[in-house]
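Box 4.2: Ligand-aware structure prediction
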Amino acid sequence: MPKHKGTDHLKADLRRKLSKLKEAPAKKKAKQVDVFYVQRSGSGQVVLLGTPNCGKSSIVAALTNAKANVADFPFATSTPVPGMIQFEDVQIQLVDMPPITADYIAPGQVGTYRNCELIGICIDLSADVTEQMQICLDFLESRSLLIDEQTTAEDEHGNILGKRAFCICTKSDIAKPGALQTLKQACKHSFEFIEISAERGDGLDKLPAMLFSLLGIIRIYAKPPGKKADMDEPFTLPAGSTVMDLAKAIHRELAEKLKFARIWGTGVYDGQNTQRNHVLNDKDIIELHFS
Ligand SMILES: Nc1nc2c(ncn2[C@@H]2O[C@H](COP(=O)(O)OP(=O)(O)OP(=O)(O)O)[C@@H](O)[C@H]2O)c(=O)[nH]1
Ligand SMILES: [Mg+2]
């Protein structure tokens, strides 16, 4: 713009507009939703892992009310689908997942495994079991997702990165002869194995109890003094938890005021007085006394 008296006003006006624009706050970014984040529910989260078409969705569809997408073509599942399994009086969350291959793992998928308590490696007994296990182990080991007693990988906060894992052998009704044996021999880890057929239902009834046992949790029933225990909704705690851990789970601040506890259950006589550091057993009933 030519510089003379007539353009002074115009110039000042433009400068004002420009500085106003510079000050204007940047438009808010749309909130990003992580589709691979699965909110935990129940007493433990178990996430399935496996190659395409190995039968993951069929397990979730058979054992939970979730709408897992079972299909006879690969990559039918594209995002995690959580469902709830009932084991006795405990709810366990089972999560269907998109498949992994040697070449492709959906971005964000690692996060789901990082967040869970137990990984169920699904291997199709009617296909190449050695190749499937290799793909799954490469994925887990390269991301320090497996518990390793010798070298415990930790994050910057000291949390152990590794997860417990076990192996669900699927499609037992159409298994190749000797497939389970081949799989066990090819696997250098001491996983527990369960053989199932979602088609015929074989082995499915054993899976909930197995998940409960592998999650390493115990159920404790709280009893208010002088009243009956609440036998409907147990507290679930990691195995090895003490009376004090239970008190903290019930009320963190009140826990400091714990005087003593009475216990009915394993290895004690009914109503025995116990110390804060007494280690609890599955199905113990506890009466907490506070000062
Ligand atoms: N015969 C037999 N077929 C099964 C069994 N379980 C699953 N299938 C079949 O295998 C195919 C794949 O099953 P899905 O459960 O969808 O497999 P998936 O692992 O979820 O597959 P992706 O979503 O691609 O990862 C379907 O046609 C199922 O009917 C089984 O126990 N026996
Ligand atoms: Mg699926």
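In the box above, the bound molecule is magnesium ion. The mean pLDDT is 91.
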